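About this split. The held-out portion is used to measure sequence recovery: a designer receives only the structure tokens and must propose an amino acid at every position. Recovery is the fraction of positions where the proposal matches the reference. Here is one held-out target exactly as it appears in the evaluation file.
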């Protein structure tokens, strides 16, 4: 392993420190991961772009499949996302054991989980022959594990039917005082 020194402006350094703290790791390790991921993911990213047409479903509004679509396709997307997150939770029980029961109430966490599900699906479909894509997925899963442990939850996710409150256009159907705030 080789060591290097890099210079960052104060804003970039503050953002790096913030991300390191959120991931419960030293600043140097976070910086090394960012540099490594950027260098190693170039080939994986190029392969993913080349094979995206094979894996990526058509979305009329041009949004990525892991982002919630407009009202016309929302219910279907939420059903599919619930099933995908449940499958991911079963597959990676140790990493997702602290997933809160109400994960679907936090837009950032929903998008994070949906992106991981889409990534896992693409990997399972053979969209990349590069093992680094698999390793990067597991790195991100580990970061999510640490974030979930840091936030904590009094009640963790258990498999079951999709909650009606999420199908009924949550959070707009709830009064604002019932929307849970989180460090996500």
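Reference sequence for scoring:
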């Amino acid at each position: 392993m080789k060591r290097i020194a890099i210079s960052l402006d104060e804003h970039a350094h503050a953002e790096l420190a913030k991300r390191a703290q959120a991931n419960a790791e030293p600043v140097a390790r976070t910086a090394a991961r960012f540099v490594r991921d950027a260098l190693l993911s170039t080939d994986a990213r190029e392969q993913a772009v080349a094979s995206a047409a094979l894996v990526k479903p058509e979305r009329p509004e041009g949004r990525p499949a892991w982002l919630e679509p407009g009202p016309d396709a929302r219910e279907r997307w939420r059903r599919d996302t619930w099933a995908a997150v449940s499958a991911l939770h079963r597959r990676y029980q140790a990493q997702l054991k602290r997933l809160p029961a109400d994960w679907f109430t936090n837009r950032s966490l929903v998008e994070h989980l949906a992106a991981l599900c889409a990534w896992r699906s693409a990997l399972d479909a053979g969209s990349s022959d590069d093992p680094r894509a698999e390793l990067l997925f597991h790195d991100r899963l580990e970061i999510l594990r640490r974030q979930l442990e840091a936030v904590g939850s009094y009640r963790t996710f258990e498999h079951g039917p999709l909650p009606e409150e999420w199908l009924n256009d949550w959070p707009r159907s709830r009064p604002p005082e019932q929307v849970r705030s989180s460090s996500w």
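Annotator remark: The chain has one domain: 10-178.
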